[in-house]
Amino acid sequence: MNGRSWVGWTLLLLLAAGGCGLGGTPSPAPADTPPSSAHSASPAAPSSPGGAPSASAPSASASDSGGGSASEADAEIARMVANMSLEEKVGQMLLAGVQGTTVDADAARMIKEDRVGGIILYKDNLAGGVRSSVELLNGLKAANAGHPAPLFLSVDQEGGRVSRLPKDFVSMPSNAEVGRTDRTSLAERMGGLIARQIRLLGFNTDFAPVLDVNSNPNNPVIGDRSFGSRPQRVAGMGVAEMDGIRGGGVIPVVKHFPGHGDTAVDSHLDLPVIRKSESELESLELIPFESAVRSGADAVMVAHILFPELDPDVPASLSEPIINGLLRGKLGFDGVVFTDDLSMGAITKHYGLEDAAVRAVLAGADVLLMAHGYDTEHRIRAKLLESVRGGRIPESRIDESAARILKLKRAYGLTDDPVPAPSASDLPNEDVRRWLKEVKAAASSR
Questions:
Q1: How far, in Å, CA of 362 to CA of 374, rounded?
Q2: For residues 1 and 144, is the Cβ–Cβ distance under 8 A?
Q3: Cis omega before residue 258 (within 30°)?
Q4: By CB distance 3.0 to 4.6 Å, which of 79, 138, 256, 352 could disulfide with 260?
């Protein structure tokens, strides 16, 4: 966005549309402190990539940062959506992966021409180290210049075996290790430290925490990614980590709704099936997600798992009864719904990629994640545009998602401003080491 902030761009758009301007940017951060253990629905916006949170930043469900009411903020978002083209609105719903450690032609095309709303990076993208990673993320932001909103710049940074960061950073342990302490204050600090790490590189979104209950010892994909086998512990530790992440100014996306812990199949490879009734899910899998929603979760990732008792035809990520009926209806979630990666085997082996994307949108998903490059993203984009123009997807359905996405991006103060490459002394490695000692001591004392 040529260095312009989200607020600055919004002011320009609203003036052009005849609307009123937005309030100021979030307050500067105080001196570096560990996150508070109190659960707060307000994300933070540190004044520098490694700074501490400011409690004054708005949440996606709060009133706008200029002091206006929630209804005024919603009206501003509605005017923004009305001023966007169909291509821009559909683009906001696409979050794609890129290849390599630099912004190649395909990555630039996805952003500049297809106007995707976000990018996800993996370990291979960050293999060049801290400076290379910052240059990549800054390059992605620069490619988004002049587009309707800043990019979601996302990563799966959970800790343990799902760690994407360069080796310059001290590694975080698995959720299971932290869960064994049963101390929510340590989980919250874990979230805050992860947020500090990834913000230094320029990320603003983390697909964490994992809220799956590790109830099946034969599960090939969750295991130590979970905080434990008891839903109450997973709920407490998971919500605390969520608070720590958003307290550090990063969007936490809780996952994998409605629960991936009792599967015997890896959804990356094929379609898992969980034959539980809704009441059975309520007694175990849903407990952490219900807790997160009550605590103001802003974003949820929905899993590629078939729950035949809830919907016999399609997995949760494509299911209207599960997304709109269970998550939004029964649990009362009003934030942004992300799908898991649509290029995973659970989808590609059983459903056409393009048709699955259409089904996900009709079911109520807001952001479609696709990890594997330009061709996949471009096909999905073309199918969504065709489906809207042909009447299969009402444009009002696209407008709903665009509004939720813009509201979330504004609430967290996202910008496309570049960040400076941090030095070794900027990395929170010593803080992580001190925290690790506390984790080990707490676990050994139980």
A1: 23
A2: yes
A3: yes
A4: 256
Question: Closest Cα to residue 12, out of 115, 152, 204, 149?
Answer: 149
CA dist., res. 46 & res. 49, Å (int): 7
Cα dist. 315→272, 309, 339 in Å? 9, 11, 11
Instruction: Say if residues 156 and 207 touch (Cβ distance below 8 Å).
Output: yes
Average pLDDT over residues 94-123: 97
Question: Confidence band (pLDDT; 50, 70, 90) for 59?
Answer: low
Q: Per residue in 190-248, pLDDT tens? A: 999 999 999 999 999 999 999 999 999 888 789 999 999 999 999 999 999 999 999 99
CB contact at 8 A, 347 and 370: no
Contacts of 113 (CB under 8 A, 6+ apart): none
CA distance 116 to 378: 10
Rounded Cα distance, 21 and 7, in Å: 9
Would you say residue 389 has pLDDT above 90?
Answer: yes
84 C-beta neighbours (distance < 10 Å), count: 21
Q: What are the residue numbers of the active site? A: 268, 340
pTM of the model as a whole? 0.87
Residues facing 153 on adjacent strands? 119
The rounded distance, in Å, linking the Cα atoms of 139 and 104 is 10
Which domains, ranges and CATH numbers included, belong to the chain?
6-17+69-444 (3.20.20.300)
Taking the C-alpha atoms of residue 353 and residue 134, their distance in angstroms, rounded to an integer, is 32
The count of other CB atoms within 10 Å of the CB of residue 74 is: 15
Sign of CA dihedral 300, 305, 306, 307: negative
